């Protein structure tokens, strides 16, 4: 089983807005990698985009039950509850709590001091001369590509809502 092919096909169908065709690929990916929540989120996203809100809501709720701290899932629960005119206050409160927790974790992490070349004086022998090396590089090659070539996408994205 080649996860790259399964993922590629699922994303291709999503990009073509053929959500029903994408679901079996993301379902298979979730069977192969059961601990990877993004595959189930992709299935739920397909249901939502198809307008199959009850199936999407049920799956988002199942995901939330097994992964209560998944911010993306909570955000989609809020979205689908709004679309279905259902109450979502409890999800909104939980989302605020998760966002505060996430921010506290980010703020608690130690800040890097820089690279070895920055400490040694960097290429121009000034402090910090090597800091920031590589920043912003490589990002253009990540994700789905421009989508303008007419061909299928180049690979999976981190977010479940492709």
TrEMBL record:
TPR repeats: 3-36
The keyword Isomerase appears for this protein: no
SUPFAM superfamilies: TPR-like (SSF48452)
Gene3D superfamilies: Tetratricopeptide repeat domain (1.25.40.10)
Cellular component GO terms held in the UniProt record: centriole; ciliary basal body; ciliary base; non-motile cilium
SMART domains associated with the record: TPR
Stored Pfam families: TPR_19
Listed transmembrane segments: none
Keyword terms, alphabetized: TPR repeat
UniProt keyword annotation of Metal-binding present: no
Top-rank taxon, per record: Eukaryota
Gene Ontology process terms (BP): intraciliary transport; non-motile cilium assembly
Molecular function as annotated in GO: kinesin binding
Name of the molecule in the record: Uncharacterized protein
Taxonomic source organism: Strombidinopsis acuminata
């Amino acid at each position: 089983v080649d996860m790259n092919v399964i993922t590629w096909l699922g994303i291709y169908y999503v990009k073509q807005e053929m959500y029903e065709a994408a679901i079996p690929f993301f379902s298979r990916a979730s069977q192969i990698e059961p601990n990877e929540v993004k595959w189930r989120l992709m299935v739920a996203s397909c249901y939502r985009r198809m307008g199959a809100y009850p199936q999407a809501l049920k799956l988002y709720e199942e995901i939330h039950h097994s992964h209560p701290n998944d911010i993306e899932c909570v955000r989609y629960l809020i979205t689908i509850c709004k679309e279905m005119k259902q109450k979502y206050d409890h999800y909104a409160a939980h989302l605020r709590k998760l966002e505060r927790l996430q921010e506290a974790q980010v703020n608690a992490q130690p800040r890097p001091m820089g690279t070895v070349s920055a400490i040694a004086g960097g290429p121009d022998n000034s402090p910090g001369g090597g800091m920031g090396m590589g920043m912003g590089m490589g990002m253009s090659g990540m994700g789905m590509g421009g989508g303008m070539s007419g061909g299928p996408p180049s690979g999976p994205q981190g977010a479940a809502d492709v």
